[in-house]
Design a protein that fits this description.
The protein has 453 residues and is α/β, with parallel strands linked by helices. The chain has helices at residues 18-22, 33-46, 60-67, 83-93, 116-129, 141-229, 237-255, 257-260, 279-289, 291-300, 321-337, 369-374, 391-401, 426-452, and strands spanning 26-29, 51-54, 71-75, 102-106, 133-136, 275-277, 305-311, 317-319, 343-352, 355-362, 405-410, 416-423. It folds into 2 domains: 3-172, Rossmann fold, CATH 3.40.50.2300; 263-446, Histidine kinase-like ATPase, C-terminal domain (Heat Shock Protein 90, 2-Layer Sandwich). It has 14 helices and 12 strands. Helix 6 runs antiparallel to helix 7, helix 9 (279-289) crosses helix 11 and helix 11 packs antiparallel against helix 13 (391-401). The chain is rod-shaped and about 140 Å long.
Length: 453
């Protein structure tokens, strides 16, 4: 016997009709043949032709699962296995979602003899045992038929609901399978997009390498072209050495470009060598390194760019001079690119409370609010194929690694100003000052000893 058989039945109806009710399967369980015959006669007269009877209650459960009735008429007082036992066993076997109505028909009682309270107790006990309805003999046949119709209608509606649930579950299962297929296809598409994006990012990163090398190589090429085009400069030893120092510095900066490409937002690490740096000296070096861009190249394209400095005496900052030169070089190059008609670039420095301020201003085209908000994003560029979008990202990474801050002020048609603030490392500066003082004192002591001797 399959307990789940009562959850599903092949009932295909849009609405419950009288014919549907009369075709329903009815099982009568009663040890009294006379009672069975009475019920069968009533069913035959009223058109309920699909009914079966059972007199041995010991076979009740087996017959129920064999016949799969839509309604059970059950007598309470039967030998061997009474109606209560049948109800308990049936509810144990049926699945929780199954609805199999059971109408209990109890023996008669004499209300005049005081048996009415007992009848009520029997009814409550029967319903508690799992019966769906209860009717006491002798009963009115019309009332019996109305109760049977109501129970059968509920049963058939329940079966229809079960059927609709099965259809719905099938549709949900089919839809879920479709969604899983779509999800798998989407994941595969995303995988391909990610792979393509990685390749694109790799290409842009390669372009960034070229961009940063060009920044350094432009100084080398520019000054070497100057020496090659004017050999007489070599006779001026001081000027020649100055040009060679600039080329050497640019070459050393280029050697660190690849290692710094991974440093967009890397924090300062223990192995990073930071020393006391004269920021004004770095600014002066940057102006010399970028001269081929803002002077020679700009003039060859018909632009006049003036480089102005406003440098105050500032305390040293703790940092890497090569990285700082590279950052300022990027900012100067960006300023040159932002002035297609020429203009002025101004570099300023001044001390602030526990910090040193460095400003790079231009009189170029400026940036919109949207561009200003995104200009530090890696690979974001407004220069089209001429830009990689890595320059300002590396500038920002360098400043953060030096524990500095960057503020950008810009407006379309009014140029841009980049304000960089580098904090003073009082502990490090104090240590350096102490070391310098100790060195001076030691020298003075050595000189004094030598003089006495």
């Amino acid at each position: 016997m399959e307990a789940g058989d009562f959850s599903v039945a092949s009932v295909d109806i849009l609405s419950i009709t009288e014919d549907d009710l009369k075709q329903a399967r009815i099982l009568i369980i009663d040890d009294q043949v006379a009672n069975i015959c009475l019920l069968q006669n009533v069913f035959n007269r009223t058109g309920f032709v699909n009914h079966t009877s059972l007199t041995d209650s010991r076979e009740a459960i087996q017959r129920i699962f064999e016949l799969q009735p839509d309604l059970i008429l059950l007598d309470l007082d039967m030998p061997n296995v009474n109606g209560y036992a049948v109800l308990h066993k049936l509810r144990e076997k049926l699945p929780p979602t199954a609805f199999l109505p059971v109408l209990v028909l109890s023996g008669g009682s004499d209300s005049k003899s005081g048996a009415w309270p007992e009848q009520e107790r029997t009814k409550r006990k029967t319903l508690a045992a799992g019966a769906t309805d209860f009717l006491q003999r002798p009963f009115d046949m019309s009332e019996l038929l109305m109760r049977i119709r109501n129970l059968l209608r509920t049963r058939l509606l329940h079966l229809e609901l079960e059927k609709q649930n099965i259809v719905l579950e099938q549709k949900v299962s089919e839809r879920t399978a479709e969604l899983r297929g779509a999800l798998a296809e989407l994941k595969e598409t995303q995988k391909q997009i990610v792979q393509q994006e990685r390749l694109r990012a790799f290409g842009e990163m390669a372009g960034g390498v070229v961009h940063d090398f060009n920044n350094s190589l432009m100084s080398i090429i520019g000054f070497s072209d100057l020496l090659l085009g004017n050999p007489d400069i070599l006779a001026d030893r001081k000027l020649a050495v100055e040009h060679l120092k600039i080329m050497n510095t640019a070459g050393r900066d280029a050697a660190q470009v690849v290692s710094r490409l991974r440093d967009f937002y890397r924090n300062r690490e223990v192995e990073d060598v930071f020393t006391a740096v004269d920021l004004n000296e770095v600014i002066e070096q940057t102006i010399s390194l970028t001269q081929p861009k803002w002077k020679t190249q700009a003039r060859s394209s018909g632009r006049m760019i003036e480089m102005v400095t406003d440098l105050e005496e500032v305390p040293p900052v703790i940092g890497n001079p090569s990285e700082l030169r590279e950052a300022l070089t990027n900012l100067v190059f960006n300023a040159v690119d932002a002035m297609p008609e020429g203009g002025t670039i101004t570099l300023r420095s001044r001390p602030e409370h526990q910090a040193v301020l460095c400003e790079i201003s231009d009189t170029g085209t400026g940036m919109s609010e949207d561009v200003r908000g995104r200009c530090l994003e890696p690979f974001f560029s407004t220069k089209g194929d001429k830009g990689t979008g890595l320059g300002l990202s590396m500038v920002f990474g360098t400043i953060k690694r030096h524990n500095g801050t960057l503020d950008i002020e810009s407006a379309v048609g009014h140029g841009s100003t980049f304000r960089i603030r580098f904090p003073l490392d009082n502990g490090t500066m104090a240590t350096d000052a102490a070391e310098r003082t100790t060195a001076v004192q030691f020298t003075q002591m050595a000189e004094a000893v030598e003089a006495k001797s």
